[in-house]
Specification:
258 residues, alpha/beta, Dna Ligase, domain 1, D-amino Acid Aminotransferase, Chain A, domain 1, 5-stranded parallel beta sheet, 4-stranded antiparallel beta sheet, globular
């Protein structure tokens, strides 16, 4: 069997390693891959943001299954393109990927489907954001709407800290000019777990829950990253909590995506 993995990070290296371990005879490809992946798969250089380019690689190499790691190609509709062309792909369609690609879409989706989430306001320019910030009790949370490699969110402890981040977004354009939306929301204090599932439509299989540590320094200090490490299972996780998560979050989300 020929399998292609999209991406170049540690996540994709793990996917390639696991696929090869379970299926030693599988011919593996990676776009673009990395130095570690190159020991296990044939790496093909090129960007991952254009679905048609990756589709062309899949067709030329007779790929039987494509596994997508990064968020960007999913948000660009790579799964939709592959499905339309009759090719097998593992990854959500563009509509579902929008929950990850746009925080404002996700927040409005949760509000629309009565999924628990912090109160929020969506703004689209610097003046609007400052007015929204002035109404908040601190600490509050400021989120850049689009994909930002885990670096688009801060917990502002005071007004000046929040204003500085908004200046970076709207004046310095640290995330580019493509998206002007920012979410300013209430800060919720508590312990966090990551609960992920595999799903086709309404049927789902939970993954093992994990406790993620996103801040760059020890003792949960410093700015957020895409993730510094995690452990599993989290000590606070139990069957009662899992039932609540499925009832209040998972099932309403799957229903809303139909």
């Amino acid at each position: 069997m020929k399998i292609m993995v999209i991406g170049s990070g540690g996540r994709e290296h793990t996917l390639v390693w696991k696929i090869k371990k379970d299926n030693p005879k599988t011919k593996l490809f990676a776009v673009p891959g990395n130095g570690g992946i190159a020991d296990l798969a044939e790496c093909i250089s090129g960007g991952t943001s254009k679905p048609e380019y990756i589709l062309d690689i899949a067709i030329k190499n007779n790929i039987e299954l494509t596994v997508v790691g990064p968020e960007v190609p999913l948000s660009e509709g790579i799964s939709d393109v592959f499905i339309q062309n009759g090719l097998k792909i593992f990854g959500p369609v563009k509509k579902a990927a929008e929950l990850e690609a746009s925080k404002s879409f996700a927040k409005e989706f949760m509000k629309r489907h009565s999924i628990p989430t912090a109160d929020f306001e969506v703004v689209e320019n610097f003046d609007e954001s400052i007015q929204a910030l002035k109404k908040k009790t601190f600490p509050c949370v400021i989120k850049y709407d689009g994909l930002a490699a885990g670096k688009g969110v801060i917990v502002a402890k005071e007004f000046d800290e929040g204003m500085d981040f908004l200046k970076k977004i709207y004046t310095d354009r640290i995330f580019g000019n493509k998206n002007n939306k920012v979410i300013i929301e209430d800060y919720l204090e508590g312990k966090e777990i990551s609960y992920l599932i595999f799903t086709d439509t309404m049927d789902f299989i939970p993954m093992v829950p994990a406790k993620d540590y996103k801040r760059v320094f020890d003792n949960d200090k410093g700015p957020n990253t895409g993730g510094m490490g995690c452990y599993s299972p989290p000590s606070l996780f139990n069957s009662i909590l899992e039932e609540q998560i499925q009832k209040k979050i998972v099932i309403p989300t799957l229903t809303g995506l139909q």
